Amino acid sequence: MADKMKKQFFFVKGLANQSLFRTEKTEVLDESLLLAERRIDALQKACSVSARKILSCLAGHGTDATTVEKRSKKIPEILLANSMLEASTPFGDSSVLGRILHEVGSIENELGYELLQYELKVEQIVTSHLQQVESEVAAILKNRRILNKLSLEMDASRKVYQSNRMSSGNTKSDQLREDMEDSYQKVEISKDSLATEIYTLLAREPEFASTILKYAQLKRDYHRAAWNLLERNIPKLEQVISDNPARPVFGTKLETHLESSGRTIAFPIEVCICALLEVGLEEEGLFRVAGGSSKIRKLKAVFDAGYCDLTAVIEDARDPHVIASVLKSYLRELPEPLLTHELYEEWIHSVRASNLDGQLQSMKNVLKKMPKPYFINLRYLVRFFSELTNYQDVNKMTPSNIAIVIAPNLIWIPDEDGKNALGLNMSLANTYSCILEHLINHCEYFFPGSESMDFYITCSKVVLEQASPKSIQSSSRVSAPEFTQEAPTIKFHKRVGSFDAAVALANGIE
After folding, report:
1. Across 257-382, where does the E strand assignment appear?
2. Cα–Cα distances in Å, from 411 out to 94, 269, 343?
3. Rounded to an integer, what distance in angstroms lies between the CA atom of residue 230 and that of residue 299?
4. pLDDT digits (tens, 9 = 90+) for 365-409
5. Which of 82, 129, 161, 196 has the fewest CB atoms within 10 Å, i.e. is most exposed?
6. How confident is the model at residue 504 (pLDDT cuts 50, 70, 90)?
7. CA angle, residues 175, 180, 185, in degrees to nearest 5
8. Measured between alpha carbons, how far is 302 from 290 in angstroms, rounded to an integer?
9. How far apart, in whole angstroms, are the C-alpha atoms of residue 337 and residue 49?
10. Which backbone phi and psi does 416 adopt, to 5 degrees?
């Protein structure tokens, strides 16, 4: 009993010394095993941190992995898809925005479920495997504590044996020696068990490396599936946009507008001209007098929004000058002028021939080189101007006057930025107006058969409730005469003396 108490005393003393005074104990692990033990710490940290960070990247982490429906409610793509699909409902299939919202919403929904499947695989295959390190390291630490305890017991048994070896009999000494050897044997067994677990875990390093690689492969497969889904569907959506005729017309290339709308005459040109045929032929100063700026902006916005037709233009504008200003604005905002940049130099040289016949022949040669869409719309426009001059006694718009205010909107100097460069060369004002004046005066020569042209290609004639164009215009005037102001009268000349004056007239500036 005394020996047992002494052994227990030395065990507790050794434990206290190690805890309080950091006295050395018998180190039962060799250097290689100590290095392996430190490597286990690095392995545990790498796997644990990786698993934790990977989980933090998953949108649906924290919900029941077995319930797809609950998990899907945390996927941003699926939430976005539901919002887009709901937002598309009021528009219907006839709206390009409604179609795009619906199609992109469907794509986002598929992307969301691709992401959901990817996250489930990551949790099942990657993070759950990496997290196994925690339990295995916990078992190693438990065995390490057992080994430490057995090592203390072995040290205590050795000290008891050494202190009693001289004073006790052989029988007692032999018993203590057997206890010491038994303690040593337990330490060896525990040490071997610990080493087995350490090296077994270290042997799985390639396995954990493959798990990390599997994560990258799963991510690759997810992104590849997402890419393929987008690659299949985006061209279809681009085609929907491309085929959509409802797009802004101001500032859009003529050929782009004609192609998307399936027209031969630009919509603003036809609608404005048909409206002016209805209400503007006898309007004095048409294209010279500017319409109200707010009305012009509104009518342009209506055109761009696709909510415009002939009736709406006539009834909403209520002023021929507004309609004429919108038509000039459309021509001026074309990226490529109606007479084209490519033929600019030829147009300029065509009117510098020594006699009228030479000028007309040169101009006809240039007309033959025009792109078909531009030629057709120019013919339509010039034919209207020719019709307008039939009322010049009333509207005061002779071919020369029309040319002065309209020509700068049909041709301008090509500049590097592709912008309207009206003010670059003041000496060209007369040349521009001369080109258009010849086209109007000799319309049938340049465009044979245009006299029988039907302006109402896609529009239908409007039956007006008012008796005359004058009454239409006057209905929009302010009723109190004291608040109205007549525009000052401008005398028309065969030519203007400055380019600034021509630009002012082109923009309807009094």
Report:
1. none
2. 37, 16, 10
3. 39
4. 999 999 999 999 999 999 999 999 999 999 999 999 999 999 999
5. 196
6. very low
7. 120
8. 19
9. 65
10. -65, -35
The secondary structure element, H or E, covering residue 283 is: none
For residue 117, give both structure tokens.
Answer: 């499947």
Contact indicator for 334, 357 with CB cutoff of 8 Å: no
* Residue appearing with tokens 């690659």: 231
d(CA 256, CA 260): 6
Alpha-carbon distance of 368 to 345, in angstroms, equals 15
Label residue 170 exposed, middle or buried (CB < 10 Å: 0-12, 13-18, 19+). Answer: exposed
Position 326 scores a pLDDT of 95
Q: Compute the C-alpha angle 258/264/268, nearest 5°.
A: 70
Do 138 and 171 meet the contact criterion of CB atoms below 8 Å apart? no
Distance of CA 259 to the CA centre of its chain: 25
What share of the chain has pLDDT > 70, as a percent? 79
Q: With 90 as the cut, is the pLDDT of residue 59 above it? A: no
- In angstroms, the CA 287 to CA 500 distance is 17
Task: Give backbone dihedrals phi and psi of 9, rounded to 5 degrees, phi first.
Answer: -65, -50
Token pair, residue 255, equals 């050929």
Higher pLDDT, 179 or 5: 179
- What is the C-alpha to C-alpha distance for residues 234 and 108, in angstroms, rounded to an integer? 12
Cα–Cα distance for residue pair 360/372, rounded to 1 Å: 20
What does the block give as tokens for 227? 């890419």
The amino acid that residue 367 corresponds to is L
Tokens 């179609």, located at residue: 99
Alpha carbon distance 497, 510 (integer Å): 16
DSSP 391: T
DSSP 484: -
Name residue, tokens 């049909």. 410
Are the C-beta atoms of 244 and 100 separated by less than 8 Å? no
Contact 360, 445 (CB under 8 A): yes
Percent share of the chain, pLDDT over 90: 54
Distances (CA, A) of 62 to 123, 128, 359: 11, 14, 83
- Written as six digits, the tokens of 494 are 């065969």
